[in-house]
Amino acid sequence: MKQAKQIAEYLTDISGVNVFENSRKRPNVETRSLLTFILRNQFSMGYHDIKRFYESNDKDYDHATAIYSYKSFGTHRKYNPKLNKYLDLVLLKLKDKSKLQKALINHIVENTLEKDLKKVLKLVDTLPNGEEQTKEKTTANI
């Protein structure tokens, strides 16, 4: 919980938005959504744990709000590019980034339209295979 509180304070510092303020203003909602995403994925908090975390910091919050906030993170990211910058800065602060990075990749894939995923897969199929690329480099060096 201590590290979660530090991340919340850091988000407040870099965004200029108090995530614990009882406000429905868009910047507050979006930054809280980012914090909820981090709490859920980096700290493996359940929705009731997230509720208790916010309430322990004097923020009115319930588990349904946590669920909605978590699910709306993708939409907020789409329309507010600052959230990506904040997330990158938080990642720099964390010692173990792997859980949050994996969660972000999964979140991106889950929120990508099927037609866009098909385009990405076609693009990946055109990339050279690692083994073939290595063979090409070796033969070029001979």
Furnish the topology, listing elements before pairings:
Blueprint lengths: L1 H14 L10 H17 L4 H10 L6 H9 L1 H7 L2 H12 L4 H13 L3 H13 L3 H12 L1
Helix pairs in contact: 1-6, 2-4, 3-4
Describe the structure.
There is one protein chain. By secondary structure, the chain is an all-alpha fold. The protein folds into two domains: 2-111, Chromosomal Replication Initiator Protein Dnaa, Chain: A; 113-142, no CATH class. It has helices at residues 2-15, 26-42, 47-56, 63-71, 73-79, 82-93, 98-110, 114-126, 130-141. Helix 1 (2-15) crosses helix 6 and helix 3 (47-56) packs across helix 4 (63-71).
Please outline what is shown here:
The chain is mainly α and 142 residues long. It has helices at 2-15, 26-42, 47-56, 63-71, 73-79, 82-93, 98-110, 114-126, 130-141.
Protein traits:
142 residues, mainly alpha, 2 domains, 9 helices
Q: Low-confidence spans: pLDDT under 50, at least 5 residues?
A: none
Average pLDDT: 84
How much is the radius of gyration in Å? 19 Å
Q: How would a textbook summarize the main sheet?
A: none
CATH topology of the largest domain: Chromosomal Replication Initiator Protein Dnaa, Chain: A
Structural class: mainly alpha
Q: List the domain count as a whole number.
A: 2
Number of helices: 9
Helix content: over 70%
Q: State the assembly state of the protein chains.
A: single chain
Strand content: under 5%
Question: What would the principal axes of the Cα set say about the shape?
Answer: elongated
Q: Which CATH C-level class of the largest domain is it? A: Mainly Alpha
CATH architecture classification of the largest domain: Orthogonal Bundle
Spatial separation of the terminal alpha carbons:
57 Å
Overall number of strands = 0
* Series of H and E elements: HHHHHHHHH
